Amino acid sequence: MGIELKIQPLRYVLAVWEEGSFHGAARQLHRSQPALSMAIRDLEERLGQPLFEKSLKGQLTPFGEYCLPRFRELIRQHDRLARDLQHVAHGQQGRVTLATVPSVASRLMPGFLAAFIAEYPDININLHDENAEFVCRMVANGEVDLGISSVWAQDEHLSYTHLFEDNIGVVLHRDHRLANRDSLQWHELEKERFIANGTSRLLKNTAAASLVDNNDFYISNMISLLAMLEAGSGITTLPRLAFPVDNRKLCFVPLSEPKLVRQIGIIKPANRSLSPSAQALERVILKRLTGVTGWPA
What we know:
Order of helices and strands: HHHHEHHEHEEEEHEHEEEH
Shape: rod-shaped
Number of domains: 3
Protein name: LysR family transcriptional regulator
GO molecular function, one term: DNA-binding transcription factor activity
CATH class of the largest domain: Alpha Beta
Largest sheet: 8 strands, mixed
Organism: Marinobacter orientalis
CATH superfamily of the largest domain: Periplasmic binding protein-like II
Keywords: DNA-binding, Transcription, Transcription regulation
Family: Belongs to the LysR transcriptional regulatory family.
CATH architecture of the largest domain: 3-Layer(aba) Sandwich
Number of strands: 10
Number of helices: 10
């Protein structure tokens, strides 16, 4: 049967050796000498050997000399483990995996994560950018801790907390006849060549649904979509956050009728607790991104 060792008596042994006496150790530890002596005596009984010479109370026995470096290492490991566990429990240390839609990843995450890492330098972040459906799937399957995305359909396995709204607009070439308009209504686009994309489903069940139903192309890849638009091959709709503001060939014109928005929020498991580090990330997301407007360029 193994010996049960408590950490505190091991600290007493080190203190007696360092101070050279039981009296000095008791004074340094702010403990009474009888209490300290009793704790060390109990430890010796558990080990079956004396640690200090009886005639010279501060001098180690050969067995005590063997134990001393091992006690010191055990205390060091204990303190390191206790410190790490405390940091993890308080959300100060750990690893978090986050999935977001690409527009959030490219436009909001650089500044947000820089600020988060400055506040929590010992939390490691893994960031994935995926389409909205895949973000939800990754959260539901436990592949990531948190998601920032839209939810296209209700899912009992997911919990959604709203952050902000992202206005939908028409994206077209700067040379297009409608490019200088302040806003556009859907019926003005009926005769245009419409290129549908993954976010075009936001037009479903609205007055503008026919644009999607009668689309000329469907392109899911953003790079390919922008190339088609730059070539003047058609127009599309995108959330403002997804529009590449540094693109000199394209422009974004708000869609005023119907006025549509993309809802963006935090997605997390409905029936599974978050780790402390994921809880810390969630708190900062809610603090910094709730109601955010004025996207960075």
